[in-house]
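Bench notes, bay 3.
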Amino acid sequence: QVQLVESGGGLVQAGGSLRLSCAVSGSIFRFNVMGWYRQAPGKQRELVAAMTSGGSTNYADSVKGRFTISRDNAKNTVYLQMNSLKPEDTAVYYCGAGVRGVPSDYWGQGTQVTVSS
């Protein structure tokens, strides 16, 4: 059974940084693409960043230049480094994994990120 476990969320002031981690049970190489989504209250879940097994990355326009997705294959872990955080980044952040092109076959439980102004 696949398990994705996020950690690293919390409360931070605007302009601050956080690093989220997503630990994948078993081998991360089972998945072609890993990603981070977020969902703010009253809004739809949106894809924030994605990374293929080949290392290609994609970011939402709202986070380009501020967020960086990376992976440590030896640790079966995906990270999301978030810098220059804004109050509008406040959301529950979810890790997703996909066997094909979209990282939505499996989900983590989510971790709350709150950015105060």
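Next record in the batch:
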Amino acid sequence: QVQLVESGGDWVQAGGSLRLSCAASGRVSNINDMGWYRQAPGKQRELVATITSGGSTKYGDSVKGRFTISRDNAKNTVYLEMNSLKPEDTAVYYCNAVVNVDYYWGQGIQVIVSS
């Protein structure tokens, strides 16, 4: 089992920045990919960014060039640096960890971007 705890969510004005963190505990040695997904009210959960244990990254089209995902394997933590935030970035952000074929999720953290 892997437990994920997100932090860093907040309210921010458009154009601002936030940094989300997600700390993993439990069977962390088996974690492959980690990432962030988000879900806005009335919408499906969507990919924000993922990062492999080797550092390869993938981003959703709507955040490319504005968000950066990084990972500290020694701390079992994944980060999401969000810049140039837009009101449409408002959502609950979920941390994700993949262990073999199993997906683990954090409880979610709210990000609100006001115009």
